[in-house]
Design goal:
Layout lengths: L1 H15 L7 H26 L7 H15 L10 H4 L1 H19 L4 H21 L1 H4 L5 E2 L12 H22 L2 H11 L1 H6 L4 H27 L1 E2 L1 H4 L2 H14 L6 H20 L5 H15 L4 H18 L31
Antiparallel strand pairs: 1-2
Helix pairs in contact: 2-8, 2-11, 2-13, 2-14, 3-5, 3-6, 3-11, 5-11, 8-9, 8-11, 9-11, 13-14, 14-15
């Protein structure tokens, strides 16, 4: 029930935010924050729950962007909302492309899988540069200009990104309470044992990867329409994948809210440093520093670390409750009492 209440409050707050009349730059920041929150939540299905650290998701971000761009080279935009309506089709195309890739790549594990997926990213980027007859190459691919009124120009993009985020979180929430989620947990814990007890290992891995890249591709489609021009070095950028991974690790892998919290911390910080430092890209050093701090201080992320500390505090409080044996009291008549200072949990032998 508490999870439903939190989700309801989150939806209401972010559905109403544009109504407060924020400046354009604030809405622009919110769009990119929601975009990364959605993509991090999607990446979490593979890298968090299944334990397969994909570094190639930016390839599918670019696939979604180019799909929307190429589609509207041959179709007209009249109301301005047509690109949003075909986002599910972009997701289906990405899932169809991703399924056979996952089937092959997920035969490897851990570091080898990460290398295979990042190789996929660079192959996709090279193709985008060299297939200039399709993608426009380094000259880029133009999108139709959105015919939205200036005062509310960002609103459709904001709500599209919010819809993708909510979809990703809903899929995560449902999978955590289903056999698929249990299967992914088993795969992450010990894939060989999971296979031995009857888990359809290949099926759940391919399914999680396909759903994940479909959501990322839809975010890429919204981004392309918002930016109005697609360049390979920006549409298929390793930094996009690094952002997803870092935000998921920061908030906590394998959790519902962890990737969202990570995005809402890092994206505003990254934007601030990018504007302050200009085109020097020194903010990437800050990215690396954050990642190092996470690995050293909170290797499991913010939410799991907080949850662990709260459990320890509750355990200490329970052990020092009224039913606990005081360290200075004499041992029990049976002679089995612990030494001084060793608490006896509540509910022990009277």
């Amino acid at each position: 029930m508490r999870a439903i209440v939190r989700g309801g409050v989150f939806v209401v707050v972010f559905m109403t935010l544009p109504l407060f009349g924020f400046e354009h730059w604030v809405l622009n920041l919110l769009i990119f924050t929601l975009m990364y929150a959605a993509m991090s939540s999607a990446w979490n299905l593979v890298g968090g729950f299944a334990g397969y650290p994909s570094l190639g998701h930016a390839a599918f971000f670019g696939l979604g962007a180019y799909f929307i761009g190429l589609w509207f080279q041959h179709h007209d935009v009249t109301t301005g909302y047509e690109p949003f309506l075909i986002l599910p089709l972009a997701g289906l195309v990405a899932a169809a492309v991703g399924a056979p890739i996952a089937y092959v790549a997920m035969r490897t594990r851990a570091d080898v899988f990460a290398i295979v997926t990042i190789t996929l990213l660079f192959v996709a980027q090279t193709l985008a540069f060299n297939l200039d007859g399709v993608t426009g190459g380094a000259q880029g691919l133009a999108m139709p200009t959105p015919p939205f009124e200036l005062a509310r120009f960002e609103w459709p993009f904001y709500y599209a990104m919010l819809w993708i985020l909510l979809t990703s979180m809903l899929i995560t929430y449902l999978s955590m309470r289903s056999k698929v989620g249990m299967s992914l947990d088993a795969v992450r814990a010990d894939e060989d044992k999971a296979l031995g007890v009857g888990v359809h290992v290949t099926g759940v891995k391919v399914l999680s990867f396909s759903v994940s890249v479909a959501l990322v591709a839809m975010a890429g489609g919204v981004w392309a329409y918002y930016e109005s021009f697609i360049y390979p070095q920006f549409a298929i950028d390793p930094i996009i994948t690094i952002g997803m991974v870092l935000m998921t690790f920061l908030g906590g892998r394998g959790t519902l809210w962890g990737p969202v919290i990570g995005a809402f911390i890092l994206v505003p910080g990254q934007q601030y440093l990018a504007y302050r430092l200009g085109g020097s890209q020194f903010y990437l050093i800050a990215y690396a520093g954050v990642f190092l701090l996470i690995m050293l201080l909170m290797p499991r992320g913010i939410l799991p670390t907080i949850a662990d500390r709260m459990r320890r505090r509750r355990a200490v409080a329970a052990s020092s409750g009224p039913d606990a044996t005081d360290g200075a009291s004499p041992p029990s008549a049976g002679g089995g009492g612990g030494g001084a200072g060793v608490p006896v949990p509540s509910g022990g032998a009277a």
